[in-house]
Amino acid sequence: MTEYVLRCPASGQTLNDSTETILLSNPASTVPALLRTEYAVRRLQPLEADHGIYRFSDWLPLARTLTGSSAPVTYHSTALGRHLGLQRLYVTFSGYWPERGASMLTGTFKECEAFAVCGRITADFPATLVVASAGNTARAFIHVCSQNRIPAVVVVPEQNLDAIWSPFPVHDSVTLIAAGDGADYSDAIDLAGRIAALDGYVGEGGARNVARRDGMGTTVLSAVTEIGRIPDYYFQAVGSGTGAIAAWEAQQRFVADGRFGSNNMRLMLSQNAPFLPMYNSWKARSRELISQDESTEKRQIEEIYAKVLSNRHPPWAVHGGLFDAMEQSDGEMYAIENEAAREAELLFERHEGIDISEPASVAVASLLQAVARRDVEPDAAIMLNITGGGMRRFATEHTNYPVTPRRIVPQSDMSSERVAALMREL
């Protein structure tokens, strides 16, 4: 439905997309790089709001559209902005907030990537989709795949199962598997990779999937078309940093569009302390990710408030990854303690009138820190990406359906041979 090609930023080559698999890299390139979409339509023409996320279909890599989507909503914040002394603070909200026109039923902007990823594959796609998640992405893909009868296997850490629910009963096209024995997000990614290597399955691809990034980039499409210009600053909390890469790529498309200015939107990103691999790497200006031993990082992940911000292997150093995005946007990174995130969450709800998720709370706390440090000007155009919200409200107005894993896989059963036997059994 959408005309586009995929460009490899390392080699400069262009590739046509595939209908038989999910193309994640340039097989001819010797340098790891994130492919990028180049759309035939250079000037974005959004459709009406009732098209959901597909109102931005000009800049989404689509083979089809699906039912039930909602786009991010951007509005000028007067209450929080006045409290912080910011004249042009814009909130881009993804979640459930009917009065604002936001109806993401799983309460997170991960629905943007799910509707884009699933829209990239055809109705007769020959493989079962495999998705790994720390929680929010799983909830979104379970919902989208269930409602649209798309075969999918979703893998999450057992310790994050409390974040997995559905706004509707889940169709049997979707299988949930949990990685047990204290597994974290990175372990779930490894388990999902072993499943995806089996015949009849294909990995969704995470940050390497252009549809995932362009789906999340609709937050910036919403903001720029509402504000009328590219923002000066972009605030978001990051787990893998994929959403921030998506924002950077969207900003570049708007520069090429030519109608919204050419300013360099600075990425103002945050991690939840004490788990700070990207924060530490950026402060050291290190392209190589500064990591600690696995046991230390897993202990830190257990301590953070926003559990989903816990990817131990983010797309940091890869060509076109987050280090490049931060460097080219002259970005900044903030370390946010748990208590600061909780206080920011209450502050946002008090001033704006809606509950927000833990990762969004970390982003709000980073904005407070930036204002205190005078990192942003009072008259700057600021985009605050609220990546999830309204979940508490949704739970008071609707039924949340639990999603039970078909199997909890202990670490001892995560070898390729055992995983293959498990999937034959299931």
Write a structural description.
The protein is α/β, with parallel strands linked by helices and 426 residues long. 35% of the residues lie in helices and 17% in strands. The protein contains 14 helices and 18 strands. Strands 4-5-16-13-14-15 form a six-stranded mixed β-sheet, sandwiched between helices. Strands 12-8-9-11-18 form a five-stranded parallel β-sheet, sandwiched between helices. A hairpin with a 4-residue loop joins strand 6 and strand 7. The chain is globular, with a radius of gyration of 20 Å. The mean pLDDT is 97.
Whole-number average pLDDT? Answer: 97
Basic shape: globular
Helix share bin: 25-40%
Number of helices: 14
**What is the architecture of one domain at the second tier of CATH?**
3-Layer(aba) Sandwich
Main pleated-sheet profile: 6 strands, mixed
State the separation between the terminal residues, measured CA to CA. 35 Å
CATH topology of one domain: Rossmann fold
CATH class categorisation of one domain: Alpha Beta
**Low-confidence runs (pLDDT<50, min 5 residues)?**
none
Structural class: alpha/beta
What is the number of beta strands? 18
Proportion of residues in extended strands: 15-25%
Rounded to the nearest angstrom, the radius of gyration is 20 Å
